[in-house]
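Quick one, T. Sequence first:
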Amino acid sequence: MSKLLWHVGSVVELSQLLMQADLERSLAVGGATVYHFMHEGQERLAISLADGLALIVQPAGSGRPRRRRRDPLKSAIANSTEESAQPA
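Structure tokens:
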């Protein structure tokens, strides 16, 4: 699962953010409203609470590119197979 960043802001901050965003979906749940939207190419989720606050959640950016982990045993086997297949 991706790491998440979240902060509590005002509904005024949320409304300004939503005006600049592409709203994917929203849903009222009890006294809260949940918003799913894209802002500056990043997916976000916000929950507007009845007390005038909003919880804004987004994935944490990675400081480095994600790379696939290679199994050292499989790499060693593949390398030895390639070496034995080469003519002497």
